[in-house]
Specification:
The protein has 13 helices and ten strands. The protein is mostly helical and 408 residues long. The structure holds zinc ion (ZN).
Length: 408
């Protein structure tokens, strides 16, 4: 039990960290140490231009673009200008190649195998950068290692045969006629000692198609979304009205209690009642008053606390279709993780979701219910599938209602 709990804690911690990083990436902030020529501003947690070193880095790009220097020459130039390794040596030519092919310098950045637009200030023009890439290409010095950076769908899927993670690799194939092919493929890490896993690998394009169509299956139909929003607004209005009535009623009762308290005090001062009776009654009225005040405070929260998550879910579920038909693989991965959690399996080059129901994640349950509802379309009249006019209830129960309604 303790193990399960601490595992859950670690998982959710890792999940939160990942989420934090992604939010950073989406805001255009590189979530890592600043490359040479930049500085991490610890105070604002942003990346700033290093005034001195940025000039040197730009100069290195300019030098290499002339196609008269080797990577070693650039390393020497950098060393002469004071850019060296932590241990005081000249940086390696591989490292120079890494620097010269880093899109960070013209304003983008690479994260999880994909390029994102950055908010930081570029220090090299895109044109100069491209000239440098052409020289690197010509000299066959295009950085090898970045090809094996984690690919975008890494960590999203497990192997259906041996349950190990699916990893991605970037490959370049040169044909005898000189044609060069670049491609990314995904395969089982085959780390299991129990199973000799025979699963084949799959091209990124194929994987993308399948993940996209899986996302399509759980995207909220625009007509349903529209109808739900109307229902939702209607419920919200009703709740607001009944909440107001509830609060008003209690306010009137509190006023009554205040009057009673005043009269009680008057009687006591007039010496009509004994001190102990006065104290006893006063305590009783005060206690009633406190209960009413508390109800006024907590009631609206209790009744409307679910509205926000539900609204958020509808919005998310609605955009899945757009994400699925878009080309942004990173967005797709984020969406797939949200919907399927760690339940995506790859088997014989095909992706499927297993056990979509999750106890811990109401949003995932809602997606499961939605996909079940779609599966029953055509078997049942649509009016029986959509949420009945009893109203939209909190996320989980709304969705299980949606489910039980049409299954019964
Ligand atoms: Zn496997």
């Amino acid at each position: 039990m303790a193990f399960v709990q601490s595992k859950y804690y670690v998982d959710s911690l890792a999940e939160n960290t990942k989420r934090g990083l992604r939010q950073k990436v989406r805001r255009g902030e590189f979530p890592g140490p600043a490359p040479i020529g930049y500085l991490n501003d610890v105070r604002t947690k942003t990346i700033m231009v290093d005034k001195k070193k940025s000039v040197i880095v730009r100069r290195a790009f300019e030098l290499y673009a002339k196609n008269q220097s080797r990577l070693e020459d650039i390393a020497n130039f950098l060393a002469k200008s004071g850019i060296i390794t932590k241990s005081g040596k000249r940086i390696s030519k591989d490292r120079v190649s890494v620097i010269l092919s880093n899109p960070f310098y013209y304003g983008h950045f690479r994260y999880a195998g994909e390029v994102h637009e950055g908010k930081h200030q570029p220090i090299v023009a895109k044109k100069l950068f491209d000239e440098v890439q052409a020289v690197l290409e010509k000299r066959g010095k295009r950085r090898k290692s970045h090809r094996n950076n984690p690919q975008v769908f890494c960590g999203l899927l497990r192997c259906a045969t041996c349950n190990m993670m699916i990893t991605g690799e970037y490959k370049v194939k040169t044909q005898k006629n000189g044609n060069v092919h670049h491609y990314t493929y995904y395969r089982c890490t085959k780390k299991s000692k129990m199973v000799n896993c025979p699963e084949p690998c799959i091209r990124q394009e194929k994987l993308d198609e399948q993940i996209s169509s899986l996302l399509q299956t759980v995207s909220l139909r625009p007509d349903w979304a529209k109808e739900w929003k109307v229902m939702f607004a209607h419920d919200e209005k009703n709740f607001a009205q009944s909440t107001n009535a509830f609060v008003e009623e209690r306010k009137v009762k509190i006023q009554g209690l205040d009057m009673k308290l005043q009269r009680l005090l008057d009687s006591y001062l007039e010496q009509d009642i004994e001190r102990n009776i006065y104290l006893e009654k006063k305590a009783k009225f005060m206690s009633e008053k406190k209960s009413l005040e508390e109800q006024i405070f907590t009631f609206p929260q209790k009744r409307t606390g679910w509205l926000e998550p539900m609204r958020k879910w509808i919005g998310e579920a609605e955009t899945l279709g757009k994400i699925a038909s878009d080309t942004d693989l990173f967005e797709k991965k984020v969406a797939a993780e949200k919907v399927f959690g760690s339940n995506l399996l790859l088997s014989k080059k095909s992706v499927r979701a297993c056990a979509l129901q999750s106890i811990a994640n109401p949003a995932q349950n809602a997606y499961a219910a939605l996909s079940a509802a779609y599966a029953d379309l055509g078997k049942l009249p649509e009016s029986q599938i959509r949420v009945s006019d009893r109203g939209v209830e909190p996320l989980t129960s709304a969705m299980s209602m949606l489910r039980s309604n049409h299954l019964s």
